[in-house]
Amino acid sequence: MIEIIRRELIYFWYYFSILLSQIAVYWVLGMILGSVIAVFGKEKLHSMFAAMRDKNLGLLGLIPASLIGIASPLCMYGTIPIAASFSEKGMRDDWLAAFMMSSILLNPQLLFYSAAMGKTVLAIRFVSCFICGITAGLLLHFFFKDKKFFNFAGFAEEESRDTDPNLFLRFFKNLWRNVKATAPAFLIGLSLAALFQRYVPETAVAALFGKQRGFGLLMAASIGVPLYVCGGGTIPLLMSWIENGMSLGAASAFMITGPAMKITNLGAVKIVLGIKDFCIYIAFALVFALLTGGMIDFVVRV
């Protein structure tokens, strides 16, 4: 019995160490990039968004709004107070929708982590999140044009914790907060991926997420909800699944429904939406994920 446990631990460490060597550099660089933006570039991003209000961009404003949402390093609970302050100053709801939707799906840290999965997956993630933000803004513009969609009552922008007068100390304090916030989920993700590679046959992944494209898309979109706790923690799992036969469409569906419907983000979104609009948000995220995944699989097949 002891010999069996010892052997399995050796196998576990073998898979774990390989995954760690593949991903660790992206995790570290992603945290550094996120802290650099949070400490040195966050105010610039927010001032750029605020400056858009005075420009007559119309629907074209959805493009920079979605890009700024991706570039923002804040979590959803940090994004909402900022969006509330913009709304109070007269920012259009469709621009706010594009900003918030893309911010939910992607941030600089997660973008860097995703590079570990290769250029194709990285491009799919960036483009799909960018388009999702724009689509959310367009739908809000055409279907909720005469209605106030968000309710930011009672929100105020929180005070920044990056206030140390020494810039380097400010940066390292932010970086340490990033490490504490992401390391547990990252290590759990590596452990799950190592166990997955050891005990789940490759054919099972191909059968579940690859061969039956429609069913695979639905399964990937569904399991993205309970499994997605931290973006960095899902990268090892996705890498293992893709290597073992998961279609790129199924992976993209997972990468959309996961962050869009993880519990903490749903809680934040529910605060500013009524029950009807909250249900619309969930339906939008699910439908967009399935359509995007289906389109990607169709293009890959062709």
Number of domains: 1
Question: What global shape is seen?
Answer: globular
Tell me, rounded to a whole number, the average pLDDT.
Answer: 80
C-alpha-based Rg, rounded: 20 Å
* Helix-strand makeup class: mainly alpha
Topology pattern, helix = H, strand = E? HHHHHHHHHHHHH
What is the overall number of helices?
A: 13
DSSP, total strands: 0
What features would you describe in this structure?
By secondary structure, this protein is mostly helical. The chain has one domain (2-155, 187-301). It has 13 helices and no strands. The protein has helices spanning 2-52, 62-71, 76-88, 93-105, 108-114, 119-143, 167-199, 202-211, 213-227, 231-243, 248-261, 263-272, 275-301. Helix 1 packs across helix 2 (62-71), helix 1 (2-52) crosses helix 7 and helix 9 (213-227) packs parallel to helix 11 (248-261). The longest helix has 51 residues, at 2-52. The radius of gyration is 20 Å and the shape is globular. The termini are far apart. The mean pLDDT is 80.
Topology:
Elements: H1 2-52, H2 62-71, H3 76-88, H4 93-105, H5 108-114, H6 119-143, H7 167-199, H8 202-211, H9 213-227, H10 231-243, H11 248-261, H12 263-272, H13 275-301
Core attributes:
mainly alpha; 13 helices; 0% strand; globular; 302 residues
